[in-house]
Design goal:
This protein has a single domain, classed as Histidine kinase-like ATPase, C-terminal domain (Heat Shock Protein 90, 2-Layer Sandwich). Helix content is about 25%, strand content about 25%. It contains 3 helices and 5 strands. Strands 1-2-3-5-4 form a 5-stranded antiparallel sheet, covered by helices on one side. A hairpin with a 3-residue loop joins strand 2 and strand 3. Helix 2 packs antiparallel against helix 3. The longest helix has 18 residues.
Length: about 140
């Protein structure tokens, strides 16, 4: 999916409870200029995907890492979140509203804020997000 002409940067985040927050901050630090007006959308989507990788990817906390590749082109940015394990069943699901175990909202949000997204189950499992610069 990724265009070879993209300028790429990589971030690695250690699996654990702080992984999504670290990913949000590190993606914002890259200061992808063409997406600055959409940085909140980018951070939200990356946060949700990293959270899913850590929660559902059978990653070992403090051992496994999630690799985030940010590829910049003139009019868009493609972000790939890669986990060392398989990423099966990635898709929008019906949200669960049970008290004490809500869930299923993350990919609904990703679907709303990213211009497109998809996944490769792997291994390694990957979810890619594409954001276009908006005029």
């Amino acid at each position: 999916m990724e265009d070879e002409a993209l300028a790429k940067r990589e971030i690695e985040v250690v699996a654990g409870p702080e992984a999504a927050a670290v990913a949000r901050a590190r993606v914002a630090q890259l200061a992808v200029l063409q997406l600055q007006p959409r940085i909140a959308d980018v951070q939200l989507a990356v946060s949700e995907i990293v959270t899913n990788a850590v929660r559902h990817g059978d990653l070992q906390e403090g051992v496994d890492t999630v690799r985030i590749t940010v590829g910049s082109a003139e009019d868009s940015v493609t972000i790939t979140v890669e986990q060392p394990t398989i990423a099966e069943g990635v898709g929008v699901v019906e949200p669960r509203l049970q008290e004490g175990d809500p869930g299923g909202f993350g990919l609904h949000l990703v679907d709303q804020v990213a211009d497109s997204w998809g996944h490769d189950p792997g291994p390694p499992g990957r979810v890619w997000l594409k954001f276009r610069r908006r005029a």
